[in-house]
Amino acid sequence: MDADPGTHPHPGTNIPAHSPTPTPTPTDVLVVGAGPTGLALANELLTAGVSAVLVDRLPRRSDLSKAGGVQPRTLEAFDQRGLLEPLLATGDHPTASGHFAGIPLPFAAHRLPWRSVPQVVIEGFFERHLAARGLHVRRAHELTGLTQDESGVTAAFANGAALRCRYLVAADGAHSTVRSLLGAAFPGEPGTSTTTAADVRLDGADAVASHTWNEDGHFAALFPLGTDDRGRPMRRLVLGGPGQSSLPRDTPVTEDDVRRGLSTVFGARVRLLELRYARRITNASRQAERYRHGRVFLAGDAAHVHLPLGAQGMNTGLQDAYNLGWKLGAAVHGWAPEGLLDTYHAERHPAGAAVLRNVRAQSLLMDWAGTRDPGVLAAREIFTELAQLPDVQRHLGGLMSGMALRYPMPDLDGGHPLTGRPVPDLDLGTTRTHELLRSGRGVLLDPDDAFAKAAEPWSDRVDVAGRGAATEPMLIRPDGYVCWAGTVGLEAALGHWFGDPR
Ligand SMILES: Cc1cc2nc3c(=O)[nH]c(=O)nc-3n(C[C@H](O)[C@H](O)[C@H](O)COP(=O)(O)OP(=O)(O)OC[C@H]3O[C@@H](n4cnc5c(N)ncnc54)[C@H](O)[C@@H]3O)c2cc1C
Hints:
Elements: E1 25-32, H1 36-47, E2 52-55, E3 69-70, H2 72-80, H3 84-88, E4 98-100, E5 103-105, E6 115-116, H4 119-132, E7 143-148, E8 153-157, E9 162-170, H5 177-182, E10 188-189, E11 194-203, E12 211-213, E13 219-227, E14 233-240, H6 255-266, E15 271-282, E16 285-287, E17 292-293, E18 296-298, E19 304-305, H7 313-333, H8 342-365, H9 374-386, H10 390-401, H11 433-436, E20 442-445, H12 452-455, E21 462-465, E22 474-476, E23 482-485, H13 490-498
Parallel strand pairs: 1-2, 1-9, 9-18, 20-21
Antiparallel strand pairs: 3-6, 4-5, 7-8, 8-9, 10-16, 11-14, 11-15, 12-13, 13-14, 16-19, 17-18, 20-22, 22-23
The structure holds flavin-adenine dinucleotide.
């Protein structure tokens, strides 16, 4: 079976593998790992105006095909930084309808519906964007040791380099070296079965459903991956069921395996024209017990791993990055209120746990290993009936898209229903709320000019906007979440989220 990400390939504690040089180069934040989480976080740090170094052990960007889907909440976050249009301009990125465990869901319409944007495209886009902002990924930098003290963290690399930073973020993936060096608990379940994921060109795929099971419990799932350089549709194919599941993760996937899998499920209806890439994935499911370890933070797959069901892993990592970036910025600039950095764990750990929970439920309902257990089949039938109810569709749609997330926040405004939720993209006449967030600062919407004076002492951190707009007053954090709304308690909320008045 898979090398379980819960095991520690680097046993030991915070002992540098190389003695750091006496005067390592300093930076505000070191981000370890230039996958989607690390790249997005580095961009957030630049937006917050702090210095960041982003390292990756690979000498060049990986072209491994992993994530293919981007959820509405992540698309909103890109939009809030002005990155959505340029990202979508990189190629053909079709939308697709949602599903839960393969049960189709006509998700409640969102202004920005689910998009197919392959992870390699997102990584390349971010890397170019960062380079244009002056931040170049330091490649062939494998972190091998770290020590932390009261004022910062010292990192050591396999190439002999060393770096001193005020904070370090582990975005180094499922087998995180940083997590191992910290000895951080990563409880959960090891992988017990595998299945095949492949990027393919197919004949006949337009005529079949996105999820298909046969009588023996074999299944195939198909998602659009845009078009290749000759405009031909590519697809992500996932094949599972009995037999597949007992194969170790490192068993190679051949063209014959994929052909056989397709014909087992579809007969002669769907044919393989081209196999670009294939791998086996496991159902390991784990989450770090604590996302913060002093000055070191875990984010993305370093903090949570699960089956890629419903396009959630990369999206969850990107949301970790948006949550953490501005908070580290506040700490570096010296205005972070007491406890702000701890809210990263308080907000993102439950969000990660909710994803693991829905993936476990989906995995069971999909009968991932093809057991054909009558209890599972009955549960699936009943669930399919339930999924016809609009309220159930709304609930599941909110869960998968990231739009239902509500961060736990102190009640400073009398329990306003918007507080803790993503800000709606309101039309404010000359601008939209998402556009206002491009600065990476807080935003106070003050339609009646009733609060601008009270907010003045925070004007170096919070912009006031929306005069005359048809909205109620609200305070929005740089990550796009409402942290106060209504009429009472604004100054307490400003102090709570944006620190002492000037
Ligand atoms: C087949 C498949 C399909 C998927 N589909 C989806 C999907 O549709 N939607 C979705 O949201 N998610 C999906 N996922 C999950 C998604 O790919 C991951 O959640 C995502 O890659 C996590 O990003 P990350 O940046 O946290 O970690 P990673 O992408 O793993 O990046 C970690 C980086 O850290 C570097 N690194 C590791 N160790 C060190 C070290 N010691 N020093 C320096 N650098 C180091 C690595 O080289 C790597 O570049 C899928 C996954 C698979 C396998």
